[in-house]
Amino acid sequence: MSITLTDQDKSTLRTAAYGAVTLMSAADAAGKPHKVATEGSIALASATGLVGHVLAEKTRDINLNGKSVAAIADHVLPALTAAMSLLKQQDPAEAGNFRRTVLVAIEAAARTHQGRPNLTMADMTRKITEALDAA
After folding, report:
1. pLDDT by residue (tens digit) across 53-95?
2. Disulfide engineering: 48 pairs with which of 17, 52, 127, 134, CB 3.0-4.6 Å?
3. What does pTM read for this prediction?
């Protein structure tokens, strides 16, 4: 099955994926947010398939503006749901690839802590997963 994504669709996927990593980084503001962002971004850069190609494109269309975590979440969480919806409509397997890619990225981000992630990161993981599954 061939997937046709518009530039806006691609922007939504990138904003959703990199936004999830940004939210995880913000949830660890008292710890090592730079390491969280690095680990999550490395995981996204390792994506394969159509999702990997879209995430690897060099663009400036990722919209993660916000003066608070809440403002960023207001943009990113709906983008995660929208990305899953548009991929499910065109290719359910690629939707699964996107979901796994984001979950691996947030798990990689959370593993920057010895043992379990802090409660704030665990809650952000739950919110991201719920947004992915809302589609």
Report:
1. 999 998 888 878 888 999 999 999 999 999 999 999 999 999 9
2. 52
3. 0.92
CA 114, distance to chain mean position in Å, is 22
Please state, in angstroms and rounded to a whole number, the distance separating the CA atoms of residues 62 and 44.
Answer: 14
The number of angstroms, rounded, from the C-alpha of 124 to the middle of its chain's C-alpha atoms is 12
Q: In angstroms, rounded to a whole number, what is the distance separating the alpha carbons of residues 25 and 3?
A: 31
Q: Would you give the DSSP letter of residue 29?
A: T
Q: Whole-angstrom Cα distance, residue 28 to residue 49? A: 30
Instruction: Output the CA–CA distances (angstroms, integers) from residue 83 to 9, 11, 80, 117, in the order listed.
Output: 7, 9, 5, 26
Quote the percentage of the chain above a pLDDT of 90.
70
